[in-house]
Amino acid sequence: MKKFLTLILALALTASLAACGSSNAPASSGSGSAGSAAGSGDASLTTAVDGVLSMATEATFPPYEYYDGDTIVGIDVEIAQAIADKLGLKLEVTDIAFDSIIPGVQTGKYDIGLAGMTVTDERLEQVNFTDSYATGIQVVIVSPNSSITSVDDLFAEGASHVVGTQTGTTGFIYATSDIQDAGLGEVKSFAKTTDAVEALKNGQVDCVILDNQPAQALVAANADAGLSILDTEYAVEDYAAAVSKDNAALTEAINGSLKELIADGTVQTILDKYISE
After folding, report:
1. How far is CA 37 from CA 54, 60, 87, 202, 208, in A?
2. pLDDT tens string 10-37
3. Which of 35, 83, 180, 199 is the most buried (most CB within 10 A)?
4. How many CA atoms lie within 13 A of 230 on its CB side?
């Protein structure tokens, strides 16, 4: 059984269904043909650069996107490449700050935002989302001998914890609403999840909230610090690609491609490649 991640098979989700750096140097991926978007069979389909599907991401989120040498790789990159191939486009991936992804998609600088991005009502006000391709879990990382032994401890009467998150992520949104606004503690946000984990190691925060798969990678990378992930989940989320509200044709085309890629097993194969049993 996959750890905290299952493939979304509900293909009847509508195109309006919705859903976390910073070098600005683009990294090309794969060998999608460089024809126009009309290669998808829809003459109304347009992209920011003719013949290119431009993807904005934040490449510190393994296994969804991360660097292998100078190349950005991961689940989202491979799914985007498979979509680009279906549409007859060349994929170009750009690593930017996570909280700059949606503005970049809104303004048309990038065609899609794909970064383990969760569907939320707030984000739906800014962009459209494709159908979901995976489910993720928000979890809590704690240090050794922490007084926080379950998620419930964060909401206990009289709780007063300092919670670390990455700016702009759903972890930040949840913690701000559930904990800080409720008077149960303070939320500190950081530019990267790695910075939040360093703050946990240094005693600046009591825990860190983030997605399960990168949490596992960060705990493994900091094995000497004795960090651990609580058994209880903080939240369950759907991942999808963000697309400009002004480009409904692209959302529809991506959904069509996703449907085929899920049906033929391509998406599951990509997930299996990165998510261990």
Report:
1. 12, 29, 7, 49, 41
2. 333 333 333 333 333 334 343 333 334 4
3. 83
4. 26
